[in-house]
Amino acid sequence: MTNERMTNPVRAKKHLGQHFLKDEGIALNIVKSLKHTNLYKKVLEVGPGMGVLTKYLITEPSFETHIIEIDRESIAYLKQNFPSLENKIIEGDFLKLDFNNLFLNEPFAVIGNFPYNISTEILFKVLDHKNQVPEVVGMFQKEVAERIASKPRNKTYGITSVLLQAFYDIDYLFTVHENVFNPPPRVKSAVIRLTRNAVQNLDCNEKLFKQVVKAGFNQRRKTLRNSIKAFKLKPEFTDHKYLTQRAEELSVADFVALTNMMEV
């Protein structure tokens, strides 16, 4: 990364909280972490900045690379340095992107060194369109990555873990030191991969499922009997073992079963 705009900390801080990766080996490893290219022919890179991932993505023969970028300076730089992307650049905010007509409803993967301040929102946007996005590979703040990938009975296991793992298998791939970014963040980072699982629909009321999960973890130190008391249990389940447990002890399947114990 030798271009002045790529190494200017003031310039980088403008980019929605994004820190620019300067380690080429890590950039290549992130791109190579896309493992399910048989499921899609297009990849959308979110927030490419100055193209440290893009340069490797466009050399991959198994898919077509598209990018979405909100910063005009970055877009100008990308158009100049990656002319093959001229008609594959979406100028705008990923969180406001209309997926309904994107790529004519073809499946696509999402990849990026995600801006930390919206990284979880990016995944929930993907979750809303889970049947079109079979794979996600991204750089996150390490604590966020651990939370997403966490399993039950861990203190990092929470709302994000359950809601994403209901429909995606999560792999924590590797940790990234803060010194490989410009400007260096104050925290370590990590790369994770989400792969769409076989679940098409949860065997419960999915809206109620989300409410139950959120209620359980919003008072995670309490037993579920207390944290979900705003919901009405069917009479036959008022003494169920789940009610003596805390939210962090329940798996996704357990939360589905718990949801089915509620009066709708």
Brief synopsis:
This protein has 264 residues and is an alpha/beta fold.
CATH superfamily of the largest domain: Vaccinia Virus protein VP39
Describe the global form: elongated
- What is the helix fraction of residues, given as a range? 25-40%
Strand content: 15-25%
Task: Report the CATH architecture of the largest domain.
Answer: 3-Layer(aba) Sandwich
**Biggest sheet strand line-up:** 4-3-2-5-6-9-7
Q: Roughly what is the average pLDDT, rounded to an integer?
A: 91
SSE topology string: HHEHEHEHEEHEHHEEEHHH
What does this structure look like?
This protein has 2 domains: 4-196, Rossmann fold (3-Layer(aba) Sandwich), CATH 3.40.50; 206-259, Helicase, Ruva Protein, domain 3 (Orthogonal Bundle), CATH 1.10.8. With 264 residues, it is an alpha/beta fold. Helix 9 packs across helix 11. The strands form 2 sheets. A 7-stranded mixed β-sheet has the order 4-3-2-5-6-9-7. The protein has a two-stranded antiparallel sheet with strand order 1-8. The protein has helices at residues 4-7, 9-13, 24-32, 54-57, 72-81, 119-128, 142-149, 159-165, 206-218, 224-227, 252-259, and strands at residues 20-21, 42-46, 64-69, 89-91, 108-113, 135-141, 168-176, 181-182, 189-196.
